[in-house]
Amino acid sequence: MVPNSETLTPNQAARRDRVLDAALVLAAEGGYDAVQMRDVATRAQVALGTIYRYFASKDHLLAECQLEV
């Protein structure tokens, strides 16, 4: 189950924001295909599994990015 952003601790929210920011940068640089989850994790300085704690898939991550913009 992916946690609701309203139930996150401040540290978790900051980590989630870093993931979103990293995905936005990668998408801006190269579009949908440029957003590889491993690259997002590296750029956000989190483990790959951490991304899936907050977002069920790449599509869910990018959909949330669109909502944040």
Descriptive account of the structure:
This protein is mainly alpha-helical and 69 residues long. The protein has a single domain, classed as Homeodomain-like (Arc Repressor Mutant, subunit A, Orthogonal Bundle), CATH 1.10.10. Helix content is 68%, strand content 0%. It is built from four helices and no strands. The protein is globular. It starts with 9 loop residues before the first helix and ends with a helix.
Give the class-level CATH name. Mainly Alpha
What's the number of extended β-strand segments? 0
How would a crystallographer describe the biggest sheet? Answer: none
Average pLDDT number? 93
- Beta content: under 5%
Q: In CATH terms, what is the architecture? A: Orthogonal Bundle
Mass-distribution shape: globular
The string of secondary-structure elements, in order, is HHHH
C-alpha end-to-end distance: 24 Å
Radius of gyration: 11 Å
The tally of structural domains comes to: 1
Number of helices: 4
- Percent helix range: 55-70%
Low-confidence stretches: none
Write a short abstract of this structure.
This protein is mainly alpha-helical and 69 residues long. Helix content is 68%, strand content 0%.
Distinctive features:
mainly alpha; 4 helices; Arc Repressor Mutant, subunit A; globular; about 70 residues
